[in-house]
Write a structure and sequence with these properties.
It contains 35 helices and no strands. It is mainly alpha-helical. Among the domains are: 130 residues, no CATH class; 111 residues; 109 residues, no CATH class; 90 residues, no CATH class. InterPro entries: PPR_rpt, SAP_dom, SAP_dom_sf, TPR-like_helical_dom_sf.
Length: 687
């Protein structure tokens, strides 16, 4: 009774408005279907209902509310002013100030005192009940909960990583206090979790929606399924799809969109065999259409399997290496033809599987398909050109694993033929074709280098030079010269490599860090450590930032100190050891390989004869450098082997020639017990 009096008194002070279009509640009940989405939102806000959701959701929500309204709800006092609600910027059609008369005074939280709200003949026997009714009317706690929910929604909209999104979702569920989250909120959170493959967070969203009484829809379940697909958890994804079918979210017999979602899951899980089985089911259904794009997903699954195996440095089984060809055989059995994009994926899969024979066959099919289709769309890559580079790279990968001379000869011959074909295709001087030929030539020379066929790599260089001579392209760049130089160095032909270096100078081709590093490897092979030091000086003095020596340069130069020069009859091992320590002192970013190489220059390899005593003592200086670099005693065994450690321990027991720095390093690494150490002011060991 008190609540009704409160409402009557408040509505009595509502100012009369001259608004031409005011719809009564009864009119809204009769014609809810005629309301637009904007009008439905305004009507829901006017009645205090949530205004989020699709048009059908808002219309059903308004119908339910109006059906539960009291019989006198159609009076003018309770009419919905849609025009005012549409024009308002806040959540309600009227604010609190409009409900209060201009001369009203509010000394407390209510607009009117208790005496004004109670009729003269009303009896207030229960003040506590009346206060509870006032608290329920103003609903301050509900406003706080709404504010917390809106804050959580804003945080969820701004989240781009799974951590913030999970926190915002948990805050939203807590703020709603058991009420069901909006479908948009669940979808927004699941998009973040799907991209990040956060399966547990995605499953939590589905469980929260179920617990709140509003199960997630089809789109939300598909996003969760994509999260499992990206995380490569096929069994969990299968269980999730089965649960969706049990709940009726997914149809018992998959439709076209669901089949494609499952195919995408096969791509993420690298399951090309299961993709073929799903496609067979789709082909057997009359209500599902299958085209080349669907079969491409099976080819993508086979491609990803080969790429992942290559990244893990694992070998593919023969059946998996032939996966793309088995997929295309199944396609032809169903009357489908591979698209250029699918054929490019097959060539790329053969590339990472190291199967140049399959790559060449699929490249021929790809070139025929591109020629038949015509010019690619502007936003599509040139699949035929990318396929040529992929085949050359497959030759390079296969040559590394192949040991037979006949196979390597064939690989080198194919590489030269493909480079020549690329030169003829790029004869018009187009920039894009020029870049394509450079990639092909460099990759072909690299394949010849891996095949230990430097003469074939030289033929690739000659093809590029002849192309430039007839003004069909630019002169070969440093990167191609480096590839040929690397082929000569890999084959151990130092004389030919040095002759090619002279050609660098004659043709005006500049050196870069890769060029110097290849020459340093030649010096390391011959034990020319002094020449290696001169090359380092040249690299440091060169003004170009592309020629700066790196840790690999210093490590290779130090490696030259590990080999006794072939042209010298007498060589002092201690002098080479001190030279290696001097090079080490110039390297600011030495790593484990650098330190291990320097120690080898001092004490030799484990199977070498015992080192000279003076050379072994120099190794203590290397230990001092390791101590400064931050190596700990428990990490010394990760850098050196047991035999080298024993030689260092024998060298540390000899006090002769100790420097203070070397003695402290030997004691620090536990090579000797505490013993007499030279004074701190003693001059450090000169090297």
């Amino acid at each position: 009774m008190h609540l009704w009096l409160l409402l009557s008194a408040a509505l009595a002070f509502v100012p009369q408005r001259s608004v031409p279009a005011i719809r009564g509640l009864q009119a809204v009940v009769e014609d809810v279907d005629a309301l637009s989405f904007r009008e439905l939102q305004a009507a829901c806000k006017e009645r205090g209902l949530p205004a989020r959701g699709a048009t059908d959701v808002l219309r059903e929500r308004l119908r339910e509310h109006l059906a539960d309204a009291p019989s006198d709800a159609g009076t003018d006092a309770d009419a919905i002013d849609l025009d005012a609600a549409l024009a308002a910027d806040d959540d309600a059609a009227f604010d609190e100030e409009e409900l209060i008369a201009p001369d009203a005074e509010a000394d407390d939280d209510a607009a009117f005192s208790e005496e004004e709200l109670i009729a003269p003949d009303a009896e207030a026997d229960d003040d506590t009940a009346f206060a509870a009714q006032l608290d329920a009317f103003f609903a301050e706690d509900d406003d706080d909960a709404d504010d917390a929910a809106e804050s959580a929604r804003r945080a969820l909209k701004a989240a781009r990583a799974p951590g913030p999104a999970a926190t915002a979702w948990a805050e939203l569920v807590a703020a709603l206090g058991g009420a069901a989250p909006e479908e948009d909120d669940a979808t927004r959170a699941l998009r973040v979790f799907s991209r990040a493959a956060a399966c547990d967070d995605a499953a939590r969203v589905l469980a929260d929606c179920e617990a709140c009484g509003r199960p997630a829809g089809v789109g939300a379940w598909k996003l969760a399924l994509e999260a499992y697909a990206r995380s490569k958890r096929p069994r969990d994804a299968d269980r999730l799809a089965a649960e969706a079918r049990t709940r009726g979210v997914f149809p018992e017999k998959p439709d076209g969109p669901l089949y494609r979602s499952l195919l995408k899951h096969c791509v993420g899980a690298c399951q090309w065999r299961r993709a073929i089985a799903l496609l067979d089911e789709m082909e057997g259904r009359d209500d599902v259409t299958v085209d080349g794009r669907d079969w491409n997903l099976a080819l993508f699954a086979a491609e990803r399997l080969a790429v992942d195996a290559s990244k893990r440095r694992g070998r593919l089984r023969r059946a998996d290496a032939e996966g793309p060809d088995r997929v295309m055989a199944a396609m032809r059995a169903k009357g489908q033809e591979p698209t250029p994009k699918g054929l490019a994926a097959a060539v790329n899969a053969n590339r990472y599987a190291g199967r140049p024979d399959l790559a060449l066959a699929n490249l021929a099919r790809l070139q025929a398909a591109v020629k038949k289709k015509g010019r690619n769309e502007p936003w599509e890559p040139d699949y035929a050109r990318e396929g040529v580079v992929a085949v050359l790279d497959s030759l390079k990968r296969a040559a590394k694993m192949e040991e037979g001379d006949a196979a390597r000869d064939r690989f080198a011959k194919i590489a030269v033929a493909l480079a020549t074909q690329a030169a003829d295709d790029a004869a018009d001087g187009d920039d894009e074709r020029e870049a394509h030929f450079e990639r092909c030539a460099v990759t072909a020379a690299g394949a010849c280098a891996r095949s230990m066929r430097p003469n074939a790599a030289r033929q690739v260089l000659e093809v590029a030079k002849k192309r430039a001579a007839r003004e069909a392209g630019a002169w070969p760049k440093t990167v191609l010269y480096n590839a040929v130089l690397d082929a000569f160095e890999a084959a151990g032909r130092s004389t030919d490599a040095l002759q090619l270096l002279d050609e660098f100078d004659r043709n005006g081709v500049p050196y870069d860090a890769v060029t110097y590093n290849i020459v340093l490897r030649l010096c390391a092979r011959d034990g020319a450590y002094q020449r290696a030091a001169e090359l380092l000086d040249e690299m440091v003095a060169d003004p170009s930032p592309k020629v700066r020596p790196d840790v690999f340069s210093f490590t290779t130069a130090i490696k030259a100190c590990c080999v006794e020069p072939k042209r010298r009859r007498r060589d002092d091992p201690a002098a080479r050891a001190r030279f290696a320590l001097g090079l080490l002192s110039r390297c600011a970013d030495a790593n484990e390989v650098t330190f291990r190489t320097a120690l080898r220059a001092c004490v030799g390899r484990p199977d070498d004869p015992p080192p000279q005593r003076d050379a072994a003592r120099v190794a203590l200086g290397v230990l001092a450098r390791m101590r400064v670099a931050g190596y700990r005693p428990d990490g010394l065994g990760d850098v050196v082997d047991g035999a080298t450690l024993a030689r260092l321990r024998r060298a540390a027991r000899d006090d002769v020639g100790f420097s203070a720095e070397g003695a402290r390093a030997a004691e620090f690494f536990g090579l000797v017990d505490r013993r007499s150490v030279p004074d701190e002011d003693e001059d450090e060991w000169e090297y």
